[in-house]
Design a protein that fits this description.
By secondary structure, the protein is an alpha/beta fold. It has one domain: 3-Layer(aba) Sandwich (Rossmann fold). The chain has six helices and seven strands, in the order βαβαβαβαβαββα. The chain has helices spanning 21-30, 51-57, 70-83, 100-105, 126-132, 168-190, and strands at 10-16, 37-44, 61-64, 88-91, 110-114, 137-144, 154-161. Helix 5 (126-132) crosses helix 6.
Length: 194
């Protein structure tokens, strides 16, 4: 657990690749008085990420890095994080896998939200897999990031019932709503001694 003095909020960077619905949600959470985080930087691997429009609208510093050369991109990202004194990275639909080296530099300070009940269904197409396997439940998991894909220590999980009529799209929608509740809860849990 990390002790904070006074009003020092944790400088946080959110990594996105798409719509940025979790970014928007985390931003709203960051504005609350009891929230331990302040979002100072948004990182994306594509200029097409819709979440960047939101970041610009809210005057959050945002940068796009092309990950064709991962090592080069990660070095630039690390410089940016250092410049902004970032102490927590929230992955929110970031579609690139970070290297072991990058993760070690931020050990214990990178968290991710994943749309399945980990350790089940790591990687992509989680909703399709859950439906195909006739699972009764699915959900989402917030976990620390380590060098193995979707394998870090679990912080919180939320389980929801899969309905008979569910498609990957309908299940995804319902789980996304839960993600928006779970991610802030998990952050509060990490910094629960505030």
């Amino acid at each position: 657990m990390i002790k904070l003095s006074g009003f020092n909020k944790i400088k946080t960077s959110v990594f996105i690749s798409g719509k940025g619905s979790n970014l928007k949600n985390l931003f709203r959470f960051s504005l609350k008085k009891k929230s331990p985080i302040e979002i100072v930087l948004v990182i994306s691997n594509t200029s097409k990420a819709e979440g960047l429009i939101f970041a610009k609208r809210k005057n959050i510093k945002n940068k796009v890095f092309n990950f064709i050369n991962r090592k080069e991109a990660e070095n630039k990202v690390l410089k940016e994080l250092k410049k902004e004194k970032v102490d927590l990275i929230c992955l929110a639909g970031f579609m690139k896998i970070l290297s072991k080296n990058f993760i070690q530099k931020f050990q214990g300070k990178i968290i991710n939200i994943h749309p399945s009940l980990l350790p089940k269904y790591k990687g992509l197409n989680t909703h399709l897999k859950a439906i195909k396997n006739k699972d009764k439940y699915s959900g989402c998991t917030v976990h620390f990031v380590n060098s193995k894909l979707d394998s870090g220590k679990i912080i919180l999980k939320k389980k929801i019932k899969i309905k008979k009529k569910d498609t990957p799209k309908s299940l995804s929608k319902r789980i996304l709503k839960e993600e928006h509740i779970l991610y802030p809860k998990a952050i509060k849990k990490i910094y629960s001694n505030l």
